[in-house]
Amino acid sequence: MIDGLDRFYNLGLYTFNMLDQNNVPNSFGESKYFDFSLLQDKIVGVFLQILAFLPHLLIALIIWFLGSYLIEIGGRLFKKFFVKNVHVTSQSHLNFMARIIVVAGKIFLILFIFDYLGIGKTFVIALTNSLSNAIAIMLGLSFGLALQEDAKKVIENVKKYLDR
Questions:
Q1: What is the C-alpha to C-alpha distance for residues 76 and 92, in angstroms, rounded to an integer?
Q2: Distance of CA 25 to CAs 37, 39, 79, Å?
Q3: Residues 6 or more apart from 71 whose CB is under 8 A from it?
Q4: CA 20 to 30 Å from 149, out of 9, 133, 156, 157?
Q5: How far apart are CA 124 and CA 108, in angstroms?
Q6: Alpha carbon distance 128, 116 (integer Å)
Q7: What does the alpha-carbon distance between residue 113 and residue 33 come to, in Å, rounded to a whole number?
Q8: How far is CA 82 from CA 90, 93, 99, 136, in A?
Q9: Which pLDDT does position 73 carry in this prediction?
Q10: Angle 9-15-17 (CA atoms, 0-180°, nearest 5)?
């Protein structure tokens, strides 16, 4: 009996849809009624993409907290090492240098996390390369200027040796 009612109900809807002349597609092939199944499919698709991305986001948060903790420990170790091995003129200079190391470490950590999440991969790679090159140039110039007088003495000694 229920099966017969279902057939009758479905037949009635089919007949009703066939008789409804207002739902005629326009020249673009669109019906005047909105198809909610497409919207539902899109919402479900977005929700599934968010669910698929959540493990990556969770791992990125773990990387952030663990990396931040390790960078802070590195900053403290830098201060302890520097105080023991090098005469520092003021504590504020030491704190400033340690803070620079911590901030630079966190910048690299953020770039690493962006690369892990796939956010702007080429931009992150280019920025990381340029930062690494800038640091290398900075260190080269600082050591070059610090050793300038020693290099001048070496060159003078070589000239004296060659002039004999």
A1: 14
A2: 18, 19, 75
A3: 102, 105, 106, 109
A4: 133
A5: 10
A6: 13
A7: 45
A8: 12, 11, 13, 21
A9: 93
A10: 105
Ordered DSSP codes for 14-72: HHHHHH-GGG---TTS--SS--HHHHHHHHHHHHHHHHHHHHHHHHHHHHHHHHHHHHH
Locus of tokens 């260190």: 139
Q: Which residues of 25-52 are buried (b: 16+ CB within 10 A; e: fewer)?
A: eeeeeeeeeeeeeeeeeeeeeeeeeeee
Using CA of residue 87, residue 133, residue 74, residue 96, what is the dihedral sign? positive
Q: For the chain, what's the residue count? A: 164
Name the one residue in this structure whose structure tokens are 């409804």.
Answer: 20
What's the pLDDT at 40?
A: 82
Q: How would residue 82 be classed by pLDDT, with cut points 50, 70 and 90?
A: confident
Torsion of CA 49, 52, 54, 60, to 10 degrees: -110
pLDDT (mean) for 82-102? 76
